[in-house]
Structure formats: structure tokens, C-alpha cells
Amino acid sequence: MRTTGADPSTPLTLILAEAALELIPREIWHHHVIRTHAKKRHKKPWEMLLDISLHYFAMLNLPERHKRGRPDIVHVCLLNALSSPLNKAGLLRTVVHTIDNRAIFIDPQTRIPRNYNRFVGLMEQLLTQGKVPPDSDKPLMTWKRLELRDLLRELGIEIAILLDERGVRMRLRELGDLIAKTIRSQVPTAVMVGAFPHGEFRRETIECATYIVSLYNEVLDAWAIVSRVLTAVEIALGIV
User: Running DSSP on this structure, what letter comes out for residue 23?
Assistant: First the structure.
């Protein structure tokens, strides 16, 4: 179902910002924890995703380690977003912007594996080979290195709404109505949700925001924010 007056060429853009999704960084390739895990999986260290549940001791001295190694957050957020009625209506574009400045572009028709291990394998293939499927002329996912500001510029975003508990408090219904209005007015708009486990947004992320909005007086999980915001927009547009 499409909404009256909404142009499907200008959907809402969901950006999973500073996402804790990355390949194992060079500085810990030779750590015994990494080497043991790589041997077990028959892979090279630089071909595997960083995962704090597996690589905790290897990560102890990494910069911003509290924000890294949680690809499961991205997994659940993508399941929420790509399965949403807003996406099915052609009014959602989902992009992952990782903590190491990789912009992952995802075809809205992509079916993310429900199984986490399969998701990990898919992301490893994407990040090492550049696209998925690797031999496709029309891949479902691609990536390239982009600073967040350059990503917003490339996407033509005019309004960027950052969800942060330190922002201006807004009721969910109000936010849904605001975003629905921008969609109806064909104003390219992005909602940025932090896809990392702990800590604050970087200064450069905050500086990219047109508005900084808080939906609740406590920290919410990224997937909870994604689900609530998209539902609010769907209700405001009359999709659900």
C-alpha cells in the first residue's frame, strides 16, 4: 500500500549510525584469541567480523572498545527495518554506516538471514568482497568508504534526525507526524539510530544532525527505537 501524495523516489532513509560492525582490525590479528578463532573457522583474521562475545580479551586495548564488536545489533535492526510495512510500501531506504566509516547500501528487497551465524557469513562476504552476491551485476548489498557527512550529501538528505536520549524530548506520535509530513512533501529525510552498545555519539555525528530527538528518558536498545519510529511513521501515513 502506498500513501496518497508520497513519492516512492523520496523514501525515508534509516541510517544505522556508528554501527558496531567491522572486520577484525589489523592491530589484533596476531592475538592468540583471534588466531585460535580464525583457525577454527578456517579463515584469515581479516576475513572475520569482530565480535566482543568471542574476542573480548583481544579487544581490551582497542580504541572505543565499548562501542565495537556487536554485529548482532545491526542484525536485529535490519530484520526490523526490512520486514516493516514501511519498507514493503517502498517508502524506506536502509543504510548502515559503520564505526570505521563504511557505508553499506542495502536493496530494500533484501531478505536478511534470520539465523545470526548466516548473517555473520553474509557480512563477512560483503566486507571482504565489496558486494553480495559477489558476482552479481545487481547486488543486494554494496559498500564504500564514506564519512557520515559525505554519505548524507550523496543521499541528498535535507533533514537528518538523530535519536539520542540527550536530545529534545518528543512524543513518538509527534515524530511520526513530522517524518510523514516530510515524506508527503518529498523532502529527503534521514533518521539516524546509533547501532552500538554503549557510549555517546561522536562529535561529527552530532554535527550532522538537523534535529536531535529523545523519545524516552532512558537509553533504549537500537532495535526498539527502529521498531517504534517506523511504526509511528506507518501510522501517520495510514499504512497500518
Answer: B
Residue 42: domain span? 26-67
Tens of pLDDT along 129-168? 999 999 998 999 999 999 999 999 999 999 999 999 999 9
Q: Taking the complete model, does pTM exceed 0.85, yes or no?
A: yes
Query: Does a structural domain hold residue 181?
Result: yes
Residue 119 lies in a domain: no
Residue 127 lies in a domain: no
200 and 157 in one domain? Answer: yes
Q: Is residue 113 part of a domain?
A: no
